[in-house]
Amino acid sequence: MLKALELFKDNIKDAQNLTSLYEYLEFTLKAPLSFDDLLRSQIVYSVSAFDKLMHDVIRIGMLEIFTSKRQPTLKYETESIPISTHLELLSATIPPKEYIFEQTVIKKLKIISFQDPEKIADGLSYIWNEKQKWQQIARKMGMDDKTVKTELKLIANRRNIIVHEADIDPSTGKKYTISKMECQSITDFLCKCGESIVHLVI
Fold it and tell me: E strands within 134-193?
């Protein structure tokens, strides 16, 4: 999982580079040009990096359970797989069982988006038996769980407005305002949340 965390940090850095580009262009090329979409892109990429981290952590954790390197959870034990996959696993030599199982997990998870706190907690239940997940995560972040969950919901909503509605206010027909501070705050929060989750479930 540490490799997944390192990849996450790299992806976050790539997202943060958009702010650096924004600052350079703002300083070099003055108004009336606007480079606010770079900040919007950073939010989208930051959420994407967090989502990927959750997919990676859950996949790796489930594979560790499958290979007896981690204790199974109730959700893991009660999860269903197709009979065809079960038959493949029974007779697998090449490719090995671990590969078949991992591909099954990837296929199952790829239709799920881990941005909403409830979906994140549900996904982590595959690998983490903790009942008060958000309390533990929030404590690790030095915050309270209600604040963390509310912030995640707001970030997911902001991302969705940017991606699905072009960040346009329907009442004015103009884009919502965005600031460098708001953008960096979102990226920093997701980075802190992601790191906290990894260190708790590792």
Answer: 168-169, 174-175
Q: Following CA atoms 153, 113, 50, 7 in sequence, which dihedral angle do they give, to the nearest 10 degrees?
A: 180
Q: pLDDT, tens digit, for every residue of 143-171?
A: 999 999 999 999 999 999 999 999 999 99
Q: What SS3 class is residue 202?
A: coil
HSE (CB half, 13 Å, CA atoms) of 84?
A: 1
Return the ∠ at Cα 57 (arms to 56 and 63), rounded to 5°. Answer: 90
Q: Tell me 173's DSSP state.
A: T
Cα 29 to the chain's mean position, in Å? 34
pTM of the model: 0.93
C-alpha gyration radius of the chain: 20
CA distance 144 to 3: 28
Half-sphere exposure at residue 62, Cβ-oriented, CA atoms within 13 angstroms: 27
For 63-117, what is each residue's pLDDT tens digit?
Answer: 999 999 999 999 999 998 888 888 888 887 788 899 989 999 999 999 999 999 9
